[in-house]
Amino acid sequence: MKEVSLTGIKPTGDLHIGNYFGAIKPALELAKTYDARYFIADYHGLNTMKDPAELNSTIRHVAAGWLAAGLDPEKVILYRQSSIPEVFELTIMLTAFTSKGLMNRAHAYKAAVQENAEKGGDVDAGINMGLFTYPILMAADIIIFDSDVVPVGKDQVQHIEMAQDIAQAVNANYGKPVLKIPRAGVQENTAVVPGLDGRKMSKSYGNTIPLFAPEKTLHKTIMRVVTNSQTVDEPKDPESSQIYLLYKLFATAEEQAALAARYRAGGMGWGEAKEELFRAANRDLAPMRERYDAIMADIPALDRILAQGAEKARPIAAATVKRFRKAAGID
Ligand code: ADP
Ligand code: TRP
Whose CA is nearest to atom 10 of ligand 2? Predict the structure, then answer.
């Protein structure tokens, strides 16, 4: 039997090419090796997103994005966290085995407290219980599917360790393996995609290239990549230009070598380099954008795909809760 991998996707804003190369593409590769499951963590999103229209449309945008990028809902399970009520029952059960001290040590919570302390006001200002208990809900997301491996970036490793601690506390209490202990699959070498200004591409920096922008917008955005003041004639170092670093994501090895040679030879201006980047990016992104537009044009069909995923996921989730309830004496 294949091991189970679980990928959680927070519905937080417009997908950009950093998300695609850093998260979506590598996560889709998992389906080759694992019994892969993917879910939209919409109740995690609720902690920060209080505008209903925005949360609602972001959930669909992100789900459509993963499908357009190649997620095959026939081969893997894709569902919304909110469609699996067992996750929330498990969350409550896990709270009984989670020390408050463990939550106090969570990086995201600690950072929020520290930021408040530095401002000199109430240290708990703006911190809701959703943020404080975030690691417990995330542990439930993972444990409910008997997940073996959870592929995450380094920033999420602490959350996986907490899920391990909590599951171990349960197993230790009952003296048997009631819950599966997950492990983190840390993605060491995923590319950090540079943004328009050369810093890491991120929505918080406003330097993104949106993944599904119409062709014209894509072109306009790429023309905004920040460059230095080297003239057309000057030879240029490809590796220190974010235009070239972005180009590499889309171009073949031969194309990369050819363009690097043109950079080094001089005679190619930044405008032309950007056009090359646009051509390569658009070649890759156009088919994905078409699929995305088609999916978004039929939201009921998208919702049916998510509902079918939930139908596959729920019996697995129910079995875990049943096992735990039996062990706990609540059956
Ligand atoms: P943002 O920084 O735009 O807010 P998120 O924090 O929502 O993006 O990231 C969602 C996923 O995309 C995470 O797995 C994150 O590691 C990945 N990701 C985001 N930006 C980049 C980037 N510039 N390069 C590589 N991966 C990225
Ligand atoms: N915390 C993850 C993030 O910020 C999202 C997430 C929620 C998740 N539950 C999960 C990831 C379970 C993996 C498994 O990206």
Answer: 8
The mean pLDDT value for 86-114 works out to: 97
- Contact assessment for residue 14 and residue 213, using Cβ atoms and an 8 Å cutoff: no
* Long-range contacts of 121-126, Cβ-Cβ distance < 8 Å, separation of 24 or more: none
Give, using CA atoms, the residue closest to atom 13 of ligand 1.
Answer: 23
Instruction: Find all residues with CB under 8 Å of 123, minimum gap 6, and list them.
Output: 113, 116, 117
Residue 241 pLDDT greater than 80, yes or no: yes
Residues in Cβ contact with 114 at an 8 Å cutoff, skipping those fewer than 6 apart:
none
Nearest ligand to the C-alpha atom of residue 190: 1
CA of 245 from ligand 2 middle (Å) equals 28
Could you give the CA distance from residue 103 to residue 163 in angstroms, rounded to a whole number?
A: 11
**19 CA: nearest ligand 1 atom:** 12
Nearest CA to ligand 1 atom 20: 18
pLDDT in tens, 72-89: 999 999 999 999 999 999
Residues facing residue 184 across a β-bridge: 150
Q: Tens digit of pLDDT for each residue in 117-142?
A: 999 989 999 999 999 999 999 999 99
